[in-house]
Amino acid sequence: MNQNRSSSLTFARYHFFFLFLIFTMNSNAYAFDRNKFYEELSRVNGIYENHIAKEEIHRLVVEGDINESNRRLKNLVPTKNKTFHDYFILGNMLFKLDWESSKKYMKEAEKLQPNNPLVQFERGIHEHKSNNYRNASDYYRRFHGSEPGRNNPVSWAYLTHAYLMTGQVEEAFKAWENVRFDKNHTAVEKG
């Protein structure tokens, strides 16, 4: 398998797992049924994981037909049947593989659960990658208002960068204090 494509698939899995860990840090993220959320997230993620584990999908990737692989992934669940969890997972899985679709899917997830802290974090990352630093800052600040965001060093580092890119140096210094780089340098460096 081509190293870049293999790493993209691995990244998609890692990215989702990283977000899952962030969200499980504290049980009071926002008012919703956490058990139901995790149950559904795991179920839906299983559908996509099983799909990308298929030999046929690996063959497409090895042959360099990443567009066909992505098309099949996106069409695995018909649009009319997609749930918040489908949009959220696809937005993460396609982050490095199909940037435009990733943005689209995360915006759909946001429409369905605008107060979900993980969606806020993801939307911040999307805005950040698009060089929309002010919008990214807004999303990161909203994420930091939730339990999983308050003590998340990576998101504080992203907010620091967004502030620097918009000339808000004092705000950047304040945000950087929350990174606690001396204790969290490994997580921040992996970003």
Task: Describe, in short, the structure shown.
The protein is mainly alpha-helical and 191 residues long. The protein has helices at 3-23, 34-52, 55-62, 66-74, 84-93, 99-112, 117-129, 133-144, 147-150, 153-165, 169-177, 181-190. The protein is globular.
Structure report:
Helix 2 crosses helix 5, helix 5 (84-93) packs antiparallel against helix 6 and helix 6 runs antiparallel to helix 7 (117-129). The chain is built from twelve helices and no strands. It folds into two domains: 1-113, no CATH class; 116-191, Serine Threonine Protein Phosphatase 5, Tetratricopeptide repeat (Alpha Horseshoe), CATH 1.25.40.10. Mean pLDDT is 82; it is low at 1-14 and 21-29. The chain starts with a helix and ends with a helix. The chain is an all-alpha fold and 191 residues long. The chain is globular.
Q: Give the overall shape, derived from the CA principal axes.
A: globular
What is the residue-averaged pLDDT? 82
Model regions low in confidence, pLDDT < 50 over at least 5 residues: 1-14, 21-29
**Series of secondary-structure elements, N-terminal to C-terminal:** HHHHHHHHHHHH
What is the strand tally? 0
Helix proportion of residues, in percent?
A: over 70%
Count of discrete structural domains? 2
What is the tally of helical segments? 12
How far do the termini sit from each other? 25 Å
Beta-strand percentage range: under 5%
Structural class: mainly alpha
Largest sheet at a glance? none
What is the rounded Rg? Answer: 17 Å
